[in-house]
């Protein structure tokens, strides 16, 4: 396994994984597959912007789909009045 943070890469065994996670390292398999993210990890601005763009594209596609959304009254009951 590998512990990776910024430009530092360490080879670790199972007994030291928790220590590296606590210090902010992400743990990867030797083939590069992510095993566990550090609890203190943050998402980069680039990743956030990419995901936001994907979300907005899906939201626009859903809105353009014309599928009506259920409206709810303030009491949490579905609107069955027939008005749109």
Descriptive key words:
4-stranded antiparallel β-sheet, alpha+beta, 84 residues
State mean pLDDT (0 to 100 scale). 84
**In angstroms, what is the radius of gyration?**
22 Å
Q: What does the overall shape look like?
A: elongated
Number of strands: 4
How many distinct helices? Answer: 2
Explain the overall architecture.
The chain is α+β, with helices and mostly antiparallel strands and 84 residues long. It contains two helices and four strands, in the order ββαββα. The chain has helices at 17-22, 45-65; strands at residues 2-5, 8-11, 26-28, 34-36. It has a four-stranded antiparallel beta sheet with strand order 2-1-3-4. The longest helix has 21 residues, at 45-65. The chain starts with a strand and ends in a 19-residue tail after the last helix. The model has no long low-confidence stretch (mean pLDDT 84).
